[in-house]
Amino acid sequence: MKTPKRKDPRSWFLALLLVIVVVVAWFMAPYFLPVYAWLHLDWNTLATETGIPLEQLQEERDFVFRYAPRGENDPTPWQLISHRHGSVTPDWMTDEHGTLIDEYQTLIRVHIVSDGHGDSPSTMWINAGITSNIYWEARGWRLPPGSLGRSGPRGVVLIRQSSWRRCNYSQALFYDGTIRRGLRRSEDLERGWISDDDPYLFPYRQDGYQPPERQKEEQEPENDEP
Questions:
Q1: Is the pLDDT of residue 21 over 70?
Q2: What is the number of structural domains in the chain?
Q3: Domain-embedded: residue 21
Q4: How confident is the model at residue 87 (pLDDT cuts 50, 70, 90)?
């Protein structure tokens, strides 16, 4: 009678180790690989639906962002900084006359979507009161409003998760000083900055967001004075 062979305990350990490695890799992959883009972005379909040439949609750019929420639970707390002519404005973004929209020295509120996990960058550790915390940069693609399931009139920026990083201290100070001074002299055509939050300049980009405190003020009835 043959004695049954005992299973080598090392094989169980190796199998368990392999399972752990696979699970960890599955959860970590979106932070290093464009998993979301692979699964949810079809460039050809997007080009067909929007009528935008494929080569224009796929033009990758360098972006600088500013964390500037309008209030609590702002769905689009990030602003894209257009600090050079044509730096962030794609060729497909034209007005009704076919002229490229001038976004130079404009703060553009956008949805940021990671090509890895499909979410907006976490703001958990961002302190809006510290200048060096609120300016970030990444490479990516600017997409039309409504792309990747984002609703509303605000545009979408798909970023390479691997390129997302905080601007260094000197860069952050430069951007912050330039923008703050520019916003104070917005009517200066050479040095002034504007924001597309302005309902008079950009009525077609208004998303209806109101800070909770303003909503509360509007809902409270006025007390008649005796």
A1: no
A2: 1
A3: no
A4: confident
- 82 Cβ partners below 8 Å, 6+ apart? 88, 89, 103, 104, 105, 106, 107, 108
pLDDT at 226: 42
Residue 207 burial (C-beta neighbours within 10 Å; 0-12, 13-18, 19+): middle
Residue 52: which domain range? 29-202
Secondary structure (3-state) at 203 = helix
The distance between the two most distant Cα atoms of the chain, rounded to a whole number of Å, is 107
Does residue 10 carry a pLDDT above 50?
yes
d(CA 56, CA 193): 27
**How many C-beta atoms surround the C-beta of residue 173 within 10 A?**
14
Over residues 132-174, the pLDDT tens digits come to 899 999 999 999 999 999 999 999 999 999 999 999 999 999 9
- Which DSSP string do the residues of 3-62 spell out, in sequence order? PPPPPPHHHHHHHHHHHHHHHHHHHHGGGTS-HHHHHH--HHHHHHHHT--HHHHT--EE
Q: Are the C-beta atoms of residues 212 and 73 closer than 8 Å to each other?
A: yes
Compute φ and ψ for 56, nearest 5 degrees.
-75, -40
Q: Give, in degrees to the nearest 5, the angle at Cα 140 between 183 and 193.
A: 10
Segments in the chain forming alpha helices (H): 9-28, 35-40, 43-50, 54-57, 169-184, 212-219
- Work out the angle at residue 119's Cα, subtended by the Cα atoms of residues 107 and 67, and round it to the nearest 5 degrees: 30
pLDDT at 22: 57
